[in-house]
Amino acid sequence: MQERIRKFHHNRIFALVFWLVVVFAAIVTLPNVNTIIQYDGQPQLANTSQPIKATQIKNHWGRNLDGTYTVNAVFNNPTGKLTNKQQAAINKTTSALQKKASYYGIQKITTITNTPTSKPQLLSKDQSTEIVQLAVSHNQGPVRSIASQLNGQIATAGLDTYVTSPEIVNDAANQHISSFTLIVILMTLLIALVAMGILFASVIAPIITFLAILISYISTLSLATNLAYHWNFAYSEYTPIFLLLGISLFTLLTSFWFFRELRNRIDDGVESQAATTQVIHSLGYRVLISTLSLTLAFGSLVFFNFSTIRAYSLLGIGFAITGIASVTLIPVFSGMLGHSLFWPKKTRPELKDRKLWFHLAKFGLWQPWIAVLVVLYFAGAFTFGSRQPLSYNNAQDIPNNQAVQGARILSAHFGQGKSTPVTLYIQNKQRFDNQNQLYQLDNLTKKLRAQPGVAAVTSVTQPGGQPITQYYVANQLSSLDTNLSGVIGQLKSVQKSLKSDRSDLKQKDLTTEVKRVNKLATTATRLSGESSSLQSAIQAAQSTSTASGNASKKAARYVKQLNQVNSQLNTALSQLNTLTNTISTTSSEAGTVSTNLSTYETGIKAVNASLKQTRKQVQKLNTSLTQMYTYLGGLQTSEAAKSLYLTPTQIASGDFQQALVNFTDTKVKTTALTITLKREPNAKTTAKTLANLKRVATSQLRGTSLKDADLTFSGQPVVMATIQRQYQHDLVRVLLLVFGLTFLLLILFSRSVLQSTYWFLTFLASAGIGYQLTHVLMQWLTGNDTFNWQVPLLAFVPVTVLAVVELTQLALSYRLNQTGLLDWLLPGIAEAGQTMRHSLFIIIAGVLGLLAASSQVLTAVALITIITAVVFNLALPVMAASFGKLSVIIPAQKPYHFHFGRGPKAKRSARPTRQEVRQQRETNHDSDEN
Q1: Are 860 and 791 in contact (CB under 8 A)?
Q2: Following DSSP, what letter does each residue of 276-336 receive, concatenated?
Q3: What is the pLDDT of residues 243-284, one digit of tens each?
Q4: What span, in angstroms and rounded, lies between the C-alpha atoms of 330 and 341?
Q5: What is the pLDDT of residue 467?
Q6: Using CB atoms within 10 A of its CB, is residue 237 exposed (0-12), middle (13-18) or buried (19+)?
Q7: Which residue windows are transmembrane per the record (predicted)?
Q8: Which of 317, 695, 714, 870 is most open to solvent, judged by the fewest CB atoms within 10 Å of its CB?
Q9: How does the average pLDDT of the chain come out, rounded?
Q10: Secondary structure of residue 128 in the 3-state scheme
């Protein structure tokens, strides 16, 4: 049993079992990579960032709108304006969608029909495109499935329809990355297999390398995705690709070292297991320091807060696993297979002496200053040339996608920033349904709209993006001026009437009338007395006529006449009694009239005085109103008249209550302003515009009733600006940390500060040249003048592997050198150059798989890596030789001493003698020949 265990140990079977268990567990526990990319691929922002705070607000927003996506259903007529028939078709589609709202999780539908005040924001100016906004519940599923469902439901004959939103576009970007991730993985592994087959003219060796890459990659990927799935560790949408890139390149290089050394020892007759052990001892230190450098450099990124950068720390684990696999897994097969590993080629390949690095180094030794200046000139021209800002828009790399096309339609017909609006949430302690708060909100709306880069702003007071005239003082003053003008005219008529009435009430006429009535009353009294006397006489005459008896005919005739007279007198008496009564009444009434007229005269005097005073007051009031009219007319044309003033009636109106529903939360203590930018989000202007908007909003509310309100910005431009700010803040620190650690380890391994500095500066210059040349090529090939912000990070991986592998080899060669620097430069650099072509071939082959994806990002990464590798392998021997020689001969030169004394005692500056100069030249010449 012990012998069998010893045999298993000798053949490294336990290592093979260990790796089989590891890869089996990795495959079994590997989560769905596409799902992880979809949900965790986007950068994870800090909880204190504006977008995360806005998400928390939106989760409790509106009337039954918490936990919803805002989705735009876009209806476009590509041939011109929407016709009445097409408009009716849109209304029919919307009505049908409304009936199925609960099935599709739609909480609210906003159209130009049910929200007329928002028509300018829902219908384009050319009237060819209409938007129907949908609030869809998160419970309906991911945005990808929501877009798929709604896209089929809004299809309308004769119109192009799209379902789009920033969330759907971002998901489309993740979906695009997921679609080519598997292709890139397969192509990279296939090219690695072919590359190793070409290098060793073998079939078995590439398969072993393929298995080593596959096992290391699956183990690392499973660990990375499980960390993201179970422990919410940072994850990037490009995590599967950059893990493959780093692991495959490092495995290819270490496998090449191992197989080349193993082939030499086996061909020399060493037994396979012994040869494998010797190779491990020989290359173990080199593999160890390379693994340690890469593990520490990338593992240190775990200390960064930005999730995308922190995700690259998983490479530290990947390089550690790869390094262990290189010295444990590959030896298992090499020990068992031995010479069969290199089947079908039976003989050792003849190694030719490669002279490229030799000649480049010799040129550097011959003319070090010229070599340095030439390399620095080209490096400076490309490294410090024109620099374009990075792009933070993931949509530019997406092929034809309906959500992206819908966003482009919105940008074309509504303005570039329409598809990616900015939302400003304002949280206040007081409600927003009163004049004081609404006045401040309206002023803020107008202030934000006036800022550079802003196309439109909608708010509760301006739901359509434009002021509603009846809500403003100017419009209200116009009605007031009209009414005031009428009142002034009426006052002038009253003033004129008062003057006429006063002239009609003349006191003299009234006095004459009173005197006449008094005279009439006196006459009536006298007549009444005379009537009484006459009545007595008639009564006496009547009694006389009755007592005369039988008389003569004359008497009878007289009596007859007397009777007639008596009868007439009776009649006259009766009439006189009536007249007396009438006169008495008239006399009494005349007295009353006289009294009333006297009283009336006194009243008339008071009225006349009052009318005179009233006329003066009316005249004064008319003057005041005229001045007020003039003031209000001037106020109407001033800036003050542009202020908002909502009456309680207007606030209670249906239109304004609809605006409150759309722009405030349930408690009416949080409101939202939607800001549309003039340009789509970009690195040049978006961050500055948002910073200016935040500064202006804070300044505008300072000192008002909203001074204590909390302001929170959200939207895709805010997310991009947040990513840009964090990325730009961390990128320089990442470069300093990773390159700094690599540089320090290079110094440690080479035990030379000066030479390591020269080599590392050469690498940095080569990387700068590769970056700038790739930018020029990509602009020429695609017409796109900006790199995606992921490009520098992705290119950072293969470029760092290149630097570590090649500089580690040079550092070890320098450290193991037992001669002087000048004696080592030419042979040491030339020896390192023997594997240069193989390393260069492996680096180029390792990134060619990236070109299989239809992605500008990965194409740029491949070009940067290839150009950097080529430039670095051409510049390194020249710069290493030149700086190495200069670091020796410059300190060896004696300095000149200048003395300004005069006379025979003044000493001349010390100069080397001719013999010393001749000896120095001979020494340099001998060094060049060596």
Answers
A1: yes
A2: HHHHHHHHHHHHHHHHHHHHHHHHGGGG-SSHHHHHTTHHHHHHHHHHHHHHHHHHHHHHH
A3: 999 999 999 988 888 888 888 888 777 888 888 888 888 888
A4: 11
A5: 85
A6: buried
A7: 180-200, 207-229, 241-259, 287-306, 312-342, 363-384, 731-749, 756-773, 793-814, 835-854, 860-884
A8: 695
A9: 79
A10: coil
Identical fold between 67-164 and 357-395+738-892: no
Domain 421-472+645-714: CATH architecture, name and number where available: 2-Layer Sandwich (3.30)
Amino acid identity of residue 144, one-letter, is R
Identify the band that residue 709 occupies on the pLDDT scale cut at 50, 70 and 90: very high
Both tokens of 575, joined, read 């009439």
Distance CA 185, CA 820 (A): 47
Domain boundaries, the chain: 67-164, 357-395+738-892, 421-472+645-714, 483-640
Q: In the Cβ-directed half-sphere of 147, how many Cα atoms lie within 13 Å?
A: 23
Q: State the average pLDDT over residues 427-446.
A: 91
- Give dist(CA 896, CA 909) in Å, integer: 6
Given this model, what pLDDT does residue 220 score?
94
For residue 139, name the pLDDT band (cuts at 50, 70, 90): confident
Question: Does the pLDDT value for residue 222 go beyond 90?
Answer: yes
Query: CA separation (Å) from 267 to 263, 346, 552?
Result: 6, 10, 209
Beta carbons of 531 and 523 less than 8 angstroms apart: no
**CA torsion sign, 360 to 363 to 368 to 374?**
negative
Buried-exposed string 331-361: b where 16+ CB fall within 10 A, e elsewhere: bbbbbbbbeebbeeeeeeeeeeeeeebbebb
Any idea which architecture 67-164 has in CATH? 2-Layer Sandwich (3.30)
Q: How many CA atoms lie within 13 A of 215 on its CB side?
A: 27
**Residues 298-303: what's their mean pLDDT?**
92
- Superfamily of structural domain 357-395+738-892: Multidrug efflux transporter AcrB transmembrane domain (1.20.1640.10)
Q: Are 856 and 394 in contact (CB under 8 A)?
A: no
Q: Do residues 117 and 468 make contact, with C-beta atoms less than 8 angstroms apart?
A: yes
Of 631, 611, 625, 619, the residue nearest 492 (C-alpha): 619
Which band of pLDDT confidence, cut at 50, 70 and 90, is reported for residue 859?
very high
What span, in angstroms and rounded, lies between the C-alpha atoms of 723 and 729? 10
Contact 796, 336 (CB under 8 A): no
Taking alpha carbons only, the member of 479, 485, 469, 476 closest to residue 630 is: 485
Higher pLDDT residue, 663 or 580? 663
How much of the chain exceeds pLDDT 90, in percent?
Answer: 30
